[in-house]
């Protein structure tokens, strides 16, 4: 098992949850596309986060990605709403 | 890189062939068979660091600008004969990361005419050649030994105003360099040890703060002079070959140490998309940069793309490279010499042409240090931190997003001494750092790319400028939530004092989009804000013997100011700004409840956010209600499991 981050590892060519061993996806795939995803307004990320509508016309959102097995919060993303989740971490593991 | 015919000459010199240097210039080089013993190496590399430290201290002692003396927005470098950086100070890192580009340019374009001689110093604030932005003026000097260029030293600091359309040289209503302070390519400011008054006048004539800039230039010259003297003494004591061999060995040591560290990390690729909001006054858009950091064996490859240049939020190649390397130094290179000449050898940068973070002339770059370069630090921080998170041995050195933007506040007017003043508040040096894998981020730690930076004292500001602070304080709920939370930021609130008011120029990002990102489930820190409470009753409150401790205690007409603004502040207008805290690390539901309770008791976290984000319920006495906490956390986990995968259920 090769550590990928705090929550994920790569084992036998698969991304797995380190907490519950949930098999999430192949090692070269974007784990975010195979996780549970909440799409929220930016203001839900924290009490002192402004409503972006006050300043810009772009549609932005706060995404949270959870392990489908144990609901651990794997990663967050602050991004324009029309963009696919960024494949932010990928190990080159045989 | 230029869009203007004939301006390609003014481009950063990434490499240099000796054939491009005038034939009468010779470099001191160490013979191939020279042997350096390890003890001498250890002693002298630290001696060079100490000389560098004294260089910075001298600069601080001479400059009268609080930007330098209090906030340490400067840096100093020592390089080898071709300008490869051997040592720099613990101040703003990206000031130090550009000098090799400028020195190569000087060697190529100035060695023939006007020539490079002992006792010369060159001034440069051209972002396309290498300065991060026009305010960050660089003064560079060759060090000669027996007629050969032995070394280079440089001093860079943020000069408060170097000309252009707006206060502090931040042309927030414009789109290009024509509105900004004109870039000065390397020009001989000092010749044979004499400050050239005609060149100095050209530079000072443009500034709204000529006396300050004049002192700053002298502080830079003084710093360089001290470094030159000490290097020459070192050469006298140990011999030129020994000192030069130490410089080379220091860079080799840094390179090999970094490559060794990289070999211990897993190969892979890490990506991040980051934003700046609002390119100029009146704009309502966000602008992105996408960074991919690929680690293969002992190399880091940076692939950069993003939106085209816009408004004043851009940076040049010099600022891009400085922004990319800045997070590497504290996280990857914390235990090795920060000899950039060696560290750069393990990096490869591939960037799209003419984008926001690699802008072609004449894009607006007058704010680059606090716009495009800062933004580059943010995206690089995310990729480097996530890379370290893949290593059990190295994860302890990652840091989540820190102080995600600089909250520029330039003001000018008549001060309490009936004199004209112009300054930039340096209080945002008290932003919060990101969380780590083992502990919370440091509250009001400062700027990640400026480890030696410090917030100006309130009292210093009140002494020098016509301001009276209501408060400067840490802000509840500013830190990004997480298993380990980010460091909290502070805010400031002041009213004009003993003046009729002042003119303001504000410029920041991270107001529409938080830019201190968390990692591994950590939440981002807060967003920035500028507010003006017009025609307030603050004088009545003072008259009653009270000093407000929060802006909510003051009545007035609230005006929320946008990320790029100009306005006037009247004598009773109360001004407020908040900077960015650090991002969190890990799932907030995994934070020990007692740590949350402690945060609530210390007002770092509110009861409401403790329950909403951390799932921790706090009793009236400030202790954890364990049963309610267990129930609340189970409720949050159950809610999470009702979410769907990307593209499903929409």
- The level of helicity of chain A is under 10%
| CATH fold call of the domain at 37-227 in chain B | Beta-Lactamase
For the largest sheet of chain B, list the strands in their spatial order: 2-1-5-4-3-6-7
Measured distance between first and last alpha carbons of chain B: 45 Å
Please describe what this structure looks like.
The complex is a heterodimer of chains A (about 90) and B (about 650). By secondary structure, chain A is an all-beta fold. In chain A, a hairpin with a 6-residue loop joins strand 6 and strand 7. Chain A is elongated, with a radius of gyration of 15 Å. By secondary structure, chain B is of the alpha+beta class. Among the domains of chain B are: about 190 residues, Beta-Lactamase (2-Layer Sandwich), CATH 3.30.450; about 190 residues, no CATH class; about 55 residues, no CATH class. Chain B has 16 helices and 21 strands. In chain B, strands 2-1-5-4-3-6-7 form a seven-stranded antiparallel sheet, with helices on both faces. Classes of the chains: A mainly beta (about 90), B alpha+beta (about 650).
Give the gist of this structure.
Chain A is an all-beta fold. Helices cover 0% and strands 39% of the residues of chain A. The radius of gyration of chain A is 15 Å and the shape is elongated.
Provide keyphrases for this structure.
heterodimer, A: 94 residues, mainly beta, 4-stranded antiparallel β-sheet, 3-stranded antiparallel β-sheet, 8 strands, 0% helix, B: 650 residues, alpha+beta, Beta-Lactamase, 7-stranded antiparallel β-sheet, 5-stranded antiparallel β-sheet
């Amino acid at each position: 098992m090769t550590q990928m981050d705090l929550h994920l590892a790569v084992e036998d060519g698969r991304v797995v949850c380190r907490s519950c061993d949930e098999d999430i996806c192949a090692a070269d795939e974007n784990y975010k596309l195979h996780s549970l995803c909440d799409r929220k307004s930016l203001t839900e990320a924290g009490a002192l986060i402004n409503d972006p509508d006050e300043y810009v016309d772009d549609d932005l959102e706060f995404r949270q990605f959870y392990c489908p097995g144990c609901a651990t919060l794997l990663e967050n993303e602050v991004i324009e709403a029309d963009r696919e989740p960024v494949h932010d971490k990928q190990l080159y593991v045989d | 890189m230029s869009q203007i015919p004939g301006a390609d000459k003014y481009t950063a010199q990434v490499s240099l062939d000796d054939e491009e240097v005038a034939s009468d210039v010779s470099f001191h080089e160490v013979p191939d068979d020279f042997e350096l013993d390890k003890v001498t190496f250890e002693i002298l590399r630290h001696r060079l660091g100490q000389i560098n430290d004294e260089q910075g201290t001298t600069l601080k002692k001479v400059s009268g600008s609080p930007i330098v003396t209090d906030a340490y927005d400067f840096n100093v470098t020592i390089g080898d004969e071709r300008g490869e950086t051997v040592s720099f100070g613990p101040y703003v890192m990206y000031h130090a990361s550009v000098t090799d580009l400028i020195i190569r340019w000087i060697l190529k374009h100035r060695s023939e005419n006007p020539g490079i001689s002992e006792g010369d110093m060159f001034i440069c604030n051209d972002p396309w050649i290498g300065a991060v932005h026009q305010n960050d003026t660089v003064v560079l000097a060759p060090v000669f030994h027996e007629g050969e260029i032995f070394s280079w030293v440089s001093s860079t600091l943020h000069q408060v105003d170097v000309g252009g359309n707006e206060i502090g040289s931040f042309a927030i209503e414009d789109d290009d360099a024509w509105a900004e302070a004109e870039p000065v390519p390397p020009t001989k400011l000092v010749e044979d040890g004499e400050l050239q008054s005609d060149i100095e006048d050209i530079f000072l004539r443009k500034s709204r703060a000529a006396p300050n800039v004049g002192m700053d230039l002298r502080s830079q010259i003084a710093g360089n002079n001290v470094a030159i003297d000490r290097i020459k003494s070192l050469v006298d004591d140990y011999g030129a070959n020994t000192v030069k061999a130490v410089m080379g060995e220091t860079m080799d040591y840094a390179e090999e140490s970094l490559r060794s560290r990289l070999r211990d990390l897993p190969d892979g690729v890490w990506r991040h998309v980051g934003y700046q909001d609002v390119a100029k006054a009146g704009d309502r858009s966000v602008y992105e940069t996408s960074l991919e950091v690929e680690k293969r064996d002992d190399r880091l490859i940076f692939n950069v793309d993003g939106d085209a240049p816009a408004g004043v939020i851009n940076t040049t190649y010099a600022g891009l490279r400085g922004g990319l390397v800045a997070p590497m130094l504290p996280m990857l290179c914390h235990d090795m010499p920060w000899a950039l000449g060696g560290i750069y050898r393990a990096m490869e940068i591939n960037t799209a042409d003419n984008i926001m973070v690699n802008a072609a002339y004449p894009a607006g770059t007058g704010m680059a240090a606090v716009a495009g370069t800062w933004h580059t630090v943010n995206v690089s921080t995310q990729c480097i931190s996530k890379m370290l998170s893949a290593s059990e041995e190295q994860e302890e050195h990652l840091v989540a997003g820190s102080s995600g933007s600089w909250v520029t506040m330039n003001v000018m007017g008549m001060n309490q001494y009936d004199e004209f003043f112009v300054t930039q508040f340096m209080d945002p040096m008290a932003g919060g750092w990101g969380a780590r894998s083992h502990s919370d981020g440091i509250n009001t730690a400062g700027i990640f790319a400026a480890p030696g930076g410090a917030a100006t004292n309130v009292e210093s500001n009140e002494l020098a400028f016509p301001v009276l602070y209501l408060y400067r304080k840490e802000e509840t709920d500013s830190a990004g939530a997480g298993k380990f939370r980010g460091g909290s930021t502070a805010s400031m609130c002041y009213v004009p004092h003993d003046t009729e008011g002042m003119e303001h120029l504000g410029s920041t990002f991270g107001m529409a989009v938080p830019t201190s990102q968390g990692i591994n489930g950590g939440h981002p820190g807060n967003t920035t804000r500028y507010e003006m409470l017009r025609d307030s009753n603050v004088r009545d409150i003072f008259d009653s013997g009270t000093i407000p401790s929060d802006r909510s205690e003051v009545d007035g007409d609230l005006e929320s100011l946008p990320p790029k603004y100009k306005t006037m502040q009247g004598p009773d207008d109360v001004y407020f700004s908040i900077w960015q805290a650090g991002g969190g690390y890990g799932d907030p539901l995994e934070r020990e409840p007692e740590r949350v309770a402690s945060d609530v008791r210390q007002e770092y976290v509110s009861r409401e956010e403790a329950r909403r984000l951390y799932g921790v319920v706090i009793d009236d006495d400030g202790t954890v209600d364990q049963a309610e906490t267990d129930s609340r956390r189970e409720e949050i986990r159950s809610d999470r499991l009702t979410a769907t995968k990307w593209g499903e259920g929409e």
